Amino acid sequence: MKFTLEVGEAEKHVVEFNFNQLAGHLVIRVDNQAVIKAARRFNEPISEVFTIEVGSREKSAVRIEKHRKQLFGHRNIVYVDNRLARVVEGF
After folding, report:
1. Could you give the number of structural domains in the chain?
2. d(CA 13, CA 7)
3. Does the pLDDT at position 65 exceed 80?
4. Category of 43 on φ-ψ map: left (φ > 0), alpha (ψ -120 to 50) or beta
């Protein structure tokens, strides 16, 4: 599952979320620089929360909640400054 999100009003940043459930790789990038990397082979948690701060002059808090579905797939809920920005579901 891969999606991007533009964050900020005056100072724009691109947050990219990339997760491959089969390989177990997760990468979160801000402006093409990896901020969070994780790898899991077995026992993926039911839910995880990733929090990052984006920007230098105009700071924005980005929180991504990843919830695993029962068999296969995920629901990702993205908050920017504690406001719901996007809900992404898929494989």
Report:
1. 1
2. 5
3. yes
4. left
